[in-house]
Amino acid sequence: MKVLRFPDPRLRVKARELKVIDKEVRKIFGQMKELMYEEDGIGLAATQVGVDLRFFVFDLSKEERKPQVVINPFIISKSEEKIVFEEGCLSIPGLKVPVERSKKIVVKWIDEKGNEIQKELTELESVLFQHEIDHLEGKLIIDKLPEEERKRIIKEIVGI
User: Fold this and answer.
1) Is there a domain that residue 3 lies in?
2) What CATH number is given to the structural domain containing 76?
3) Which residues are catalytically annotated?
4) What is the spatial distance between Cα 118 and Cα 106, in angstroms, rounded to a whole number?
């Protein structure tokens, strides 16, 4: 398993709902957690490894290694108040993009044990969830850039 790099077209695939958490899917959860750590990331969406299912793994715990799996996430509400973070992406190494997102969101999802969770997230956790959910929709941080800047960066990355 490896992280797909832009401009791989599979990064633009909209993920399908994950309906069954079976042995095969649990194996993918484990592989993605390890890959996220190997790549020094804090989040990794299934679509970033070529799996078109609606889930991602993340870990904001720093050294403790407390990875979590978020299945079929759904944003219930977003705050009007915004926050801007310099976001990076494992699929576009070396690129940092200032992205404006909602400061607070309320999200519903299923954890890897099958429990339904609903939680209000703020700051970095809110930004991380919005970033990973974008991946599940086939959207990338590069899409947040103004058109001219996006074209210039794509040219640099693709080498055209």
Assistant:
1) no
2) 3.90.45.10
3) 132
4) 7
Stated as kind and residue range, the H or E segment containing 117 is: strand 116-122
Q: pTM value?
A: 0.94
- pLDDT higher than threshold 60 for residue 160: no
Distance CA 29, CA 71 (A): 10
Asked, for residue 1, whether it belongs to a domain, the answer is: no
pLDDT in tens, 73-127: 999 999 999 999 999 999 999 999 999 999 999 999 999 999 999 999 999 999 9
140's tokens? 């990338």
Q: Tokens 């299945």 identify what position? A: 71
Q: Would you say residue 85 lies in a domain?
A: yes
3-state helix, strand, coil in the chain (%, to 5): 35, 30, 35
